[in-house]
Amino acid sequence: MSIFNIKNINSLHSKKKNEILSELNILLSQYSAEERINWALTNLPDSHIMSSSFGIQSIVLIHLMIQQKPNIPIILIDTGYLFPQTYHFIDMLTNKFNLHVKVFRSKISPAWQEARYGKLWEQGIKGINLYNNINKVKPMNFALNQLSVKTWFSGLRRDQSKSRNELTYLSIQKGIFKILPILDWSRQTISKYLKQHNLDIHPLYKMGYVSVGDVHTTQKYQSGMLEEETRFFGLKRECGLHEN
User: Fold this and answer.
1) What superfamily in CATH does domain 3-234 come from?
2) pLDDT tens for residues 87-141?
3) Which terminal Cβ of the chain has fewer Cβ within 10 Å, N or C?
4) Is 239 among the catalytic positions?
5) How many CB atoms are closer than 10 A to CB 162?
6) Active-site residue among 61, 72, 82, 239?
7) Where are the extended beta strands (E) located within the chain?
8) What is the pLDDT of residues 200-212, one digit of tens each?
């Protein structure tokens, strides 16, 4: 399959587009994470970016990416409600690896949002969805447009939640190529990579957190819980960033 066809896939009708994506996903399933990154950087259109929440295991994909493209823009969506430890973690990693972090936020400040809507995260699924739309989805859409993004790398993994079981290595979201290099990695693979490269893990991991987002919608892992139940009070897993 030629690079020309891949880069112009959006001009094809949906059936042909899905056929090509299916073929590419079979190919990518046979590659290592490093090979998937190399393939995408070589074959998918620039500009390339990656997104990161700088959560518990986020350093893994960051480290993999900067081995091949040290200056890749890393989009961080700052809700204003991240844990203090997360902000310190971002600063530490940025300085240590000279990361090219691009921060995007809602145009409405957290204080103004609370004055206007109250504490949305306390208003059930409807309030949480509105909160996520204001603080995550809209800023991300703005970032993708502002940076003229053509290819988006993300660290989503199938073992993180049921909602991610059916994800593919390569897809098209909002007209943008979306590539998930560590989609098939297990917790054991992640742990092995962290130890092999002596990478820093998020400080909240040692305090019992297995997934970290905002302070008001993240809770520590308790015996018997699924990882996805530690976010959004177990009402939902996805914040909307990775939905079409």
Assistant:
1) HUPs (3.40.50.620)
2) 999 999 999 999 999 999 999 999 999 999 999 999 999 999 999 999 999 999 9
3) C
4) yes
5) 10
6) 239
7) 48-51, 73-77, 100-104, 151-153, 170-173, 176-179
8) 999 999 998 888 9
